[in-house]
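hey can u check if this looks right to u? its 146 residues, i copy pasted from the old doc so theres a chance i mangled smth
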Amino acid sequence: MTKEIWFDMDGTIANLYAVENWLADLRAENVRPYAEALPMLNFSLFARLLNRLQADGWKIGIISWTAKNGSEAYNLAVEMAKRAWLAKHLPSVEWDEIKVVRYGTNKKEACGGGILFDDEEGNRNTWGQGAYAPQDIVEILKGLRG
């Protein structure tokens, strides 16, 4: 397996769906929910695990979609909001790659392989072996340390 770990953001590490009126805001092309979403796990522990895995030779990245039916301008604003969110909540993590791609993009084709953490079952099924639900993040990352 390729020594790459990819994380979805919305519903995986960022609690976008708990932000009040998130869907109405996305439909109105407002980036507020992306900026206000809270972390979904202990980010102090998460950052330490990611930094240790990088030291062990793992590449870590973000693979996240823009909003469904977003305009080009909104998609760019979404990408900027997501990058700002990562910098705010995980400042000690130096991502090897951050890919914010159009909604519906096949994440396996966009990334090539490795491990994927994603809340959407369809993305995990398309990815195949090495795709996991968000609740497994810490346990699996700890298991990769060796």
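Strands lie at 4-7, 59-65, 97-101, 115-117, 131-132.
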